Amino acid sequence: MDEAVIYTILGEAGFTKLCAAFYKRIKTDDLIGPMYPEEDMAGAEERLRDFLLFRFGNDPRYQAKRGHPRLRMRHAPFAIGEAEAVRWLELMDAAMDETKVPASIQMDLRTFFTMVAHNMKNQ
């Protein structure tokens, strides 16, 4: 996976649209939606966007605000099992379809998202 290529293709605007489409689904999801407090939904969306911009575009915002990602530690308070990881991936796949992420990078993004989702499992 070439992160720079993915970032060049999607750019900040593409990652912003992807995260918005993803969180639109989170709001109504019965399995993982309850993990996201309504009052922090915009903050969660911003954190995911900033993380993806950091990961793929070396954008400094995420680290400036939050430091090292420590994703597993940050997700430890939430019960995340196989069902939650799979649902997260389903919602992200739907968001990629909605925002028309180019096929040339979808497989690499799916591989990355799959690794992240399964690394968050703690159940």
TrEMBL record:
Residues reported to bind heme: H118
UniProt key word Heme: yes
Keyword presence, Heme: yes
GO MF annotations in UniProt: heme binding; metal ion binding; oxygen binding; oxygen carrier activity
Protein name as it appears in the record: Globin
This protein's UniProt keywords: Heme, Iron, Metal-binding, Transport
Source taxon at top rank: Bacteria
Annotated family: Belongs to the truncated hemoglobin family. Group II subfamily.
